[in-house]
Write a structure and sequence with these properties.
- By secondary structure, the chain is α/β, with parallel strands linked by helices.
- Helices cover about 35% and strands about 25% of the residues.
- The chain folds into 2 domains: about 130 residues, D-Maltodextrin-Binding Protein, domain 2 (3-Layer(aba) Sandwich); about 90 residues, 3-Layer(aba) Sandwich (D-Maltodextrin-Binding Protein, domain 2).
- It has a 5-stranded mixed sheet. A 4-stranded antiparallel sheet has the order 3-10-4-11. A two-stranded parallel sheet has the order 1-2.
- The longest helix has 28 residues.
């Protein structure tokens, strides 16, 4: 498919749950730019990306320059297994603790803070990097969470944050939303949306085993990988958009010291 002479820069999250969008994607005129989700927002603000599955929290600040692309995103209703909070004590006893957080995520970290502060009504003493000593709890995302196989020695309490959200709100959780630069040519937007949707449909129907076989290093069986990917909702429904609205309200009502922190 030929877009135009200008190269269209697409942000690519290199996590397993994004592979159904990107595996085998062959669209003329695009440049895939692999990076963690936390890197996409700053590039988008500088208009150095044309489209991407932006981390949901970052997408809130991009609406003046970007719009939804084909109602695509990354959502799950129930356990996701790749957004895991490990703790030495129950989540409701985290007040005063030191919590390690990944630097790769924007939305997962903010979901964690919403759950801690508003569902469990606790506040850790501080958030630090995962490499810091003396952690009482920590958050892992993406493939880094998956390879723990739901267990970390010394941290007996494990919480799947997507499942925690569902139990609390009765809604799916949307981790990312595809957005495209508003000023991009309308024909390019349509071709990009169509190309991504067709590639997604092809991968979900015929290529999940191929995607699974490329992730053998993660120590997951093909069945486990396929089950993991089939749990996601990649085209957002009305319920997903309701969930986005619900989370945005909860996130914006966090205490000022938390909402003013850098969105990583």
């Amino acid at each position: 498919m030929r877009f135009m002479s200008t190269i269209v820069r697409i942000g690519q999250i290199p996590y397993l749950n994004c592979e159904p969008f990107f595996h085998g994607l062959a669209l003329d005129g695009i440049e895939l730019c692999p990076m963690p989700p936390s890197s996409m927002g700053p590039l988008a603000q500088a208009e150095e990306l044309d489209a991407a599955p932006f981390s949901l929290v970052q997408s809130f600040g991009l609406r003046d320059k970007y719009e939804s692309l084909g109602d695509m995103g990354i959502s799950v209703k129930g356990p996701v297994r790749s957004i895991l909070f490990y703790s030495r004590v129950p989540m409701g006893e985290i007040s005063g603790a030191v919590v390690g957080v990944t630097q790769e995520s924007a939305t997962a970290v903010q979901l964690m803070k919403v759950l801690l502060e508003q569902r469990y009504e606790v506040r850790p003493r501080k958030y630090v990097g995962l490499e810091s000593p003396g952690l009482s709890a920590f958050l892992l995302i993406g493939d880094e969470a998956l390879v723990t196989h739901d267990s970390v020695e010394g941290f007996p309490y494990r919480y799947d944050l997507a499942d925690e959200w569902l139990k609390w709100k009765g809604l799916p959780f949307v981790f990312a939303a595809w957005m495209v630069r508003r000023t991009l040519d309308s024909g390019v937007k349509r071709m990009l949306a169509d190309g991504l949707r067709k590639n997604l449909a092809e991968n979900m129907k015929n290529n999940l085993k191929v995607i699974a076989d490329r992730r053998e290093h993660m120590g997951m069986t093909s069945t486990e990988v396929i089950d993991y990917l089939e749990a996601f909702r990649y085209v957002l429904s009305e319920e997903d958009w309701q969930a986005i609205e619900e989370f945005e309200g909860a996130w914006r009502s966090l205490s000022p010291t938390k909402t003013k922190e850098t969105i990583i």
